[in-house]
Automatic annotation (TrEMBL):
The keyword Cell division does not apply. InterPro entries: AAA+_ATPase (IPR003593), ABC_transporter-like_ATP-bd (IPR003439), ABC_transporter-like_CS (IPR017871), BCAA_Transport_ATP-bd_LivF (IPR052156), P-loop_NTPase (IPR027417). Keywords: Amino-acid transport, ATP-binding, Cell membrane, Membrane, Nucleotide-binding, Transport. GO terms for molecular function: ATP binding; ATP hydrolysis activity; branched-chain amino acid transmembrane transporter activity. Residues 6-239 form the ABC transporter domain. It comes from Ottowia oryzae. GO terms for biological process: L-amino acid transport. Pfam families: ABC_tran (PF00005). This is ABC transporter ATP-binding protein. It comes from the Bacteria. Belongs to the ABC transporter superfamily.
Length: 241
């Protein structure tokens, strides 16, 4: 079995008349947390949406667990035990927290049928989800909505978790809570791919890193090596960790 759970080879994506991805090569090692970094407009979100089939690759190949998923539709990809948390979180504002969770729990028809042990684990990771269980999701704060979005993605066991900017707009205390949650998820064996702009978040969590620029991956390696190389950081990201 390959050490990489997810692989992109020469992936191009067009959106209308715009050519966004220009041959993305990306490896997501099994059981590790991979950070996808890059300046705004580098193509990070488009890469995630292409993996999930929300936008179709016009060239190249996406492979998950050794199977070609390039032409699969989003529901088929989700059924492969891949969960995706978009940047806008995708919360159903008019539904309660419980109802949002139930929609994601495909094996349950009522909240009582959701795996109680897993739910208890999620409540321990994100106490706000339990506290506001019967509360309209649209009334939650930004940080609470992000916690709900991640909780919904992991309400059933997933092999791959893909999250777009989980720390965006969050207070430092909530970011620390989110870091702890992802560390526990990784320890449980989940493979994680994160897009991040918060470099401290990336440095504390990442095992592997890929840096994008102008629709391509321009650097890949260990997160620790990038964190310790100020000159490389400056060249790739225009900043120092």
């Amino acid at each position: 079995m390959s050490d990489n759970l997810l692989t992109l080879e020469g992936v191009h994506t067009h959106i209308g008349a715009y050519h966004i991805l220009h041959g993305v090569d990306l490896q997501v090692p099994r059981g590790q947390l991979t950070m996808l970094l890059g300046r705004n407009g580098a193509g990070k979100t488009t890469t995630l949406r292409t993996i999930m089939g929300l936008w179709q690759a016009s060239q190249g190949r996406v492979t998950f667990n050794g199977a070609d998923i390039t032409k699969k539709h989003t529901p088929q990809i989700a059924q492969l035990n891949i969960a995706y948390v978009p940047e806008n979180m995708g919360i159903f504002a008019d539904l309660t927290v419980k109802e949002n969770m139930l929609l994601a729990a495909r094996q349950a028809r009522t909240a009582a049928q959701i795996d109680t042990q897993r739910l208890a684990w999620i409540f321990k990771l994100f106490p706000a989800v339990e506290k506001f269980w019967n509360y309209p999701a649209g009334k939650l704060s930004g940080g609470q909505k992000q916690m709900l979005a991640v909780s919904r993605a992991i309400v059933e066991p997933r092999e791959l978790l893909i999250v777009d900017e989980p720390s965006k707009g969050l207070a430092p205390a909530i970011i620390n809570n989110m870091i702890d949650a992802f560390q526990q998820l990784k320890a449980s064996g989940v493979t994680i791919l994160l897009v991040e702009q918060n470099i401290n978040f990336a440095k504390r969590l990442g095992d592997h890193v890929a840096v994008m620029d102008d629709g391509r991956v321009v650097h890949a390696g260990s997160m620790q090596a990038l964190a310790e190389d100020a000159a490389l950081q400056q060249r790739l990201l225009g900043l120092s960790l």
